[in-house]
Amino acid sequence: MEIRYHSTRDKEHFLTASQAILQGLAEDGGLFVPERIPEPLSIPALMDKDYRGVALEVMKLFLCDYTDEELKACIDAAYDSKFDTEEIAPLAEIGGTYYLELFHGATIAFKDMALSILPHLMTTAARKQGLKEEIVILTATSGDTGKAAMAGFADVPGTRIMVFYPKDGVSPVQEKQMLTQKGKNVRVVGIRGNFDDAQSGVKRMFNDADLKKELKDKGFIFSSANSINIGRLVPQVVYYVYSYVQLLRYGRISLGEPVNFCVPTGNFGNILAAFYASRIGVPVNKLICASNSNRVLYDFFHAGTYDKLHELDLKSGAFSQERKFMLTGSPSMDILISSNLERLIYYISGEDTEKTAALMKSLSENGSYDIDDEMKERLEGFESGFAGEARCARAIRETFEKHSYVIDPHTAVGAAVYEDYFAQSGDETNTVIASTASPYKFARTVMNAIDPSSDACEDMELIDKLCSLSGVELPNAIEELKGAPILHDTVCEIAEMPDEVRGFLR
Q1: Which residue among 35, 63, 342, 444 is least packed, with the fewest CB closer than 10 Å?
Q2: Active-site residue among 60, 111, 132, 308?
Q3: DSSP 373-400
């Protein structure tokens, strides 16, 4: 039976998968979810399949109005030579823990895993729906989504993409990757604010009926490349399924044996994909949510309260401290409004759209919400932890010194949180840590952790030093930055974002 999609806040209106992908965000501000979870996969049937084969089997469960031929064409176009390894998402066994390397794509971050295929899913959907308007992708980025999205959509006919990022909230490499992006249909704008400001600004434009009508009259419709788009989320489910198949194939686990997934997360999309993988047949013991110093998710899992304004006092257990937005060495996780958590709220509420809508209204109006005891019980499969800057630096340094393996600051958050979880729980379940970015994207933070004397070096000198130290070949994405001209230089206030969109489309 075909699976339709509805908002987390309304079960009365249904869309097909392709319609949901094109629309991006529901009209009521909610996120699209499948009306039911698909029937579980047959894991043994995946044993002889490569990444593309696993992707087809996973994605056709969710994207039911796409034919197998359409999905296969999208998959083949996405997971091709732009990835520097045939495995696409290889597993590295480091000290008895498995690192799922999600950074082998064109922009060396895990966002490539979904944003390589989203343009193909979207343009296929447009054909299926007979869409006449030009698709305008509006996206907020905390560092990696922007580049991966622009690279995916660059010069794709019938689309334009505009990315907003916090001007002082990304790494130098992340920023230069975006500002040098080629393509007649791409634009990137820095905002004077943080990622939450950018994300909220994009959401306001999606919900601005007058703006949407104004642009529709001119032949444009909005869509999103953030993980609020179900077309971003479904491809991310694939690599968790694939990692389990790899562990089976290499004889590291037996069929049916559960694993843990430890996921560094800010907007909650990446770990939500692991949650969906567990719902379609991957045996999971624990999903470990790893936060950096912006620990709003850690506080939520520990107290059952989501509060973007106040921080949990770990001694008293009360939300008595003002929550401050922290700029960290893992900028893609510097987020206080985790949009994808709404989908988990929908599930733990018993798929109650009214309750979900009420909680989201409370967050919008009061800055917080509390879940009830029944909802808390449904979080039993989750664990959480957080790691501050010094703890992350130690994880980078110790992983290199003990195993000659270099990890980026986001992966270090996952490594540190998992180490703390293991020390406290003694849980010996095989664990996969999502390694979300290449260390080359954050060379200064990585080298400062390994060799603090490196801080005096220029950025590109640091990258060369890291290359020599790690013995890992410099990715093409970094080589291409050397001498690349700056093509985008616009910076605006938050309130000016709609005018920047109008200017771009004009």
Answers
A1: 35
A2: 111
A3: HHHHHTTTTEEEEE--HHHHHHHHHHHH
